[in-house]
Amino acid sequence: MPNLDFSNQTWGNPSSQKRALLLHGLMGTGAVWFKVAEILVAQGHGWAPHSRPYDVQTVTKHLADHLSNQDVPYEVIAGVSFGSSFAASLFSALPEDQKPKRLVLAEPILDYPPFTKEALDGMINFTKDIPTEESILKANPSWIRAEAVLRRLSLSLIDPEVIVQLSDAMVKGEFSHSNLLPSQSSSTDTEIIILAADPSVKTVYPPENAQRLEDEYPYVKFGWVQGATHDMHKTDAGVLASTIMKGLAEAQTDGVIVLRH
Q: Is 176 inside any structural domain?
């Protein structure tokens, strides 16, 4: 198995007794979390080389190995998009004394239809013909310029092969509820939350999944963020940070419609 080095973007005091681990999604970098991270730091929370393969099992093992020597376990593990899917897989791989008190999965890729060839080619082309900051801002009017800069940076750094391999993993069913969501017996002391974007805007985790969770994973809490897009860590950082810090019930006052506690 190849060695996989992770780069760490750190905010706040590294010796803090309260820590949160945030995992970014496909075609992103750790820096995309800066809005959420700054809010967490204010509340007291405390560029890797390419290394293939990028399948779920391999990446999860490297993440778990990376955390194996942590003297203070993370109180929260959160992710967005594909980062959420890996966060769920990581949770199950951690020993009991390292499991967080809260697992927040924002817009997780779970049983999502595989990318079409056109979509896959489009994402790969973005890494070769990187759009300008102005075109990114025009396509995403709610973003600020720093987010457009980070988007260009992430597109310049990404290994296009990760897009291909994660797409293949989707086809193989690696990104499924049954493969990634923790069992109830392994999560009795952890609040597990799935946050979806507003279905009236667009979400990769549609509200009909609520019934699936009710039937198969009743211990997983679920809600959607009003007006949010898939990039809720950019457009709704306050809501996401509130959920990370307080849990789902208290986040209702911040724009989360709670479908199940």
A: yes
- Sign for the CA dihedral angle at 162, 201, 236, 260 comes to negative
Which domain covers residue 248, as residue numbers?
20-260
pLDDT in tens, 50-88: 677 888 999 899 889 888 877 788 999 999 999 999 999
Q: Which residues contact 76 (CB under 8 A, 6 or more apart)?
A: 19, 20, 21, 45, 100, 101, 102, 103, 104, 244, 245
Q: How many domains does the chain have?
A: 1
Does residue 158 lie in a domain region? yes
145 within domain boundaries = yes
Q: Quick one: tokens of 125?
A: 């082309």
Write the pLDDT tens digit of every residue in 103-112: 999 999 999 9
| pLDDT higher than threshold 70 for residue 227 | yes
Query: Does residue 71 fall inside a structural domain?
Result: yes
What is the Cβ-side half-sphere exposure of residue 218, based on CA atoms within 13 angstroms? Answer: 1
Domain containing residue 152: CATH number: 3.40.50.1820
